[in-house]
Amino acid sequence: MYKAFYGLNDNPFSIAPNPHYMFLSDRHREALAHLTYGLGETGGFVLLTGEVGTGKTTVSRCLLQQLPENTDTAFILNPSLTELELLATLCDELAIQYGDHPTLKQLTDLLSKYLLENHKNGRNTVLIIDEAQHLRSEVLEQLRLLTNLETNTKKLLQVILIGQPELQQLLKRQDLRQLAQRITARYHLLPLDHDEVALYVLHRLKVAGRQEPLFTQKAIKVLHKHTGGIPRLINLLSERALMAGYGQAKVPIDHKMVNQAAVEVLGQIDTPNNKRWPFVVAVALVLAFGLSLYLFNRSAIDSRFMPNTADAAQTQTQVQTKTQSSVTASLTPAAVNQVTVQQPSAINAQQQLMRQAMAQSTSIENAFAGLFGLWNKQPIIGLSACQAAQQQDLACYQQQGNWHSIMRLNYPAVVYLQDAQTNVFYGVMVERQVDQILLQLGEQQFWVSKDWFDRHFSGTFEILWQPDAVIPRDISQSSSMAQVQWLENSLARVNKRPARLLTQFDTELEQQLMHFQRQHGLKPDGIAGNQTLVQLNLYLSQQGPRLSASVERS
Predict the structure, then answer these.
(1) Cα 293 from Cα 286, distance rounded (Å)
(2) Integer Cα distance of 35 and 59 in angstroms
(3) What is the distance between the alpha carbons of residues 469 and 56, in angstroms, rounded to a whole number?
(4) Got the DSSP string for 216-278?
(5) Mind listing the pLDDT tens digit for each residue in 214-234?
(6) What pLDDT was estimated at residue 175?
(7) Any idea where the AAA+ ATPase domain is (predicted)?
């Protein structure tokens, strides 16, 4: 829309990762050098971390372009997988054929055979995992076991883990110390500084066809201030500023347009006008003090002429109570800190308390400790949460989903959350009442609304559950009739209908299974695989705590 106005051939600030616009700052080049060095070593793991939007994917794409031609690469973008699913995905990426319903051992054997053949043919194998902070400890341990395959001089599989800073914390866990010792190179990617922001903006404009600067120096300074040097945020604000300049038919882009873009994109209001607020507050305090002094002196005089002050005070108290009861907050501390009647000042204090709790809830181990407490269990020192669960006859289950996914399961959950600056923190869903949940952050609990939760939920949650003594592995048309009948009985309970006596895995059962899978965000393939069976068992189980005592299943 504005390309002709600015003399551009393309949109210079699209957030899509276009290789033509690749800009390598000194930090990006240094990160690339570390990764290249790490891959040249004989170790198994290389680590790249950085905040959201700092250019980790840019570095990884550049690295892929520099890999030797004798390198086979597997790229995993969604690491929220089980051990079996991860190995299956790795086989898919490397075009390794495997049969239906493979076991962990079968996939491991196929991968080992492939890696040995690749090495024999003079080829290297590299696995790159993006968003690796979402990997579970069991999956990381499985990766470490894969890298055990080696010759006298090198590992046959090299793994590059790319993720947010939480990945560094994850790898500090006691149960992952063996993997951490195998990291041969690591680099934490920092945001751009002020000069690099200027070069970054100029570079993208030149690639898009404009040779002259378009942003004033002050605009660049403000752009760096609002974005913190995060390339993705620079793109968003610059795009919005170009739209503003086009709407005003104004060139160049000045700092006022960037400030307005920050308000629209980031919700920030950080303009020079804010400097007036301390003066305004000071004046208000002086006036308030003067008014209170006047009223105090006036009341001392008038008290001689007001005989029924007790009744008046009672009336005033009733009015205040009625006014206070009409004030509601979007979040309130629960348990002993919960207040049912709140003034606006109390609400602000609670919001501040909430922000502090969010900032302090960066440990997933602490969140799991709260979840264990709801099951009357304890975490075990030296073991991961899932390992501790197995020791106590429980199991972990991680899923990607939303509010409705969690409500359908109706189990307390550790939820992965993000604040307005995309900093990750962890909470525990403890209880539900209509469209509110009781969220535990550290030692405190808060009632939050569904809207608040939707704004902060990253999409990942984990629950603890108590499986039946016997859970079938996979159920399909080739399964035994005992397993098929178990599936029929289970779906009959879900649909609140009488169970049929089956002699085969018929079409009606397949359709009901696919309907259940669609309801729970699973692939509707008509095969009751691991995820489907776990979801079904969770749905039907009567053991353990629940978010709500009575939930209408959908």
Answers:
(1) 11
(2) 9
(3) 44
(4) -HHHHHHHHHHHTT-HHHHHHHHHHHHHHHHHHT-SSB-HHHHHHHHHHHH-----GGGGGHH
(5) 999 999 999 999 998 999 999
(6) 83
(7) 42-195
Output phi, psi for 460, to 5 deg: -115, 135
Cis omega (within 30 of 0) for bond into 252: yes
Q: What is the CATH number of domain 466-554?
A: 1.10.101.10
Radius of gyration of the chain (CA): 30
**pLDDT reported for residue 311:** 42
pLDDT digits (tens, 9 = 90+) for 58-101: 888 888 888 888 889 998 987 888 899 999 999 999 999 999 88
26-189 and 194-269: same fold?
A: no
SS3 of 540, please?
Answer: helix
Q: Which among 93, 10, 103 has a CA at the least distance from the CA of 474?
A: 103
- CATH number of 194-269: 1.10.357, 1.25.40, 1.10.8, 1.10.10? 1.10.8
Neighbour count for residue 425 (Cβ, 10 Å): 23
In the chain, the N- to C-terminal Cα span, in Å, equals: 45
Spans of all domains in the chain: 26-189, 194-269, 344-465, 466-554
Q: CB neighbours of 433 closer than 8 A, spacing ≥ 6? A: 447, 548
Low-confidence ranges of the chain (pLDDT < 50): 268, 270-281, 283, 293-296, 298-342, 552-554
**CA–CA gap between residue 237 and residue 266 (Å, rounded):** 9
Residues contacting 132, CB < 8 A, separation 6+: 79, 161, 162, 163, 167
Which CATH superfamily groups domain 26-189?
P-loop containing nucleotide triphosphate hydrolases (3.40.50.300)
Burial environment of residue 478 by CB neighbours within 10 A (0 to 12, 13 to 18, 19 or more)? exposed
Confidence (pTM): 0.51
Q: What is the pLDDT of residues 413-422, one digit of tens each?
A: 999 999 888 8
Domain 344-465 CATH superfamily: Cysteine proteinases (3.90.70.10)
Q: In this predicted structure, what is the pLDDT of residue 88?
A: 93
pLDDT of residue 154: 80
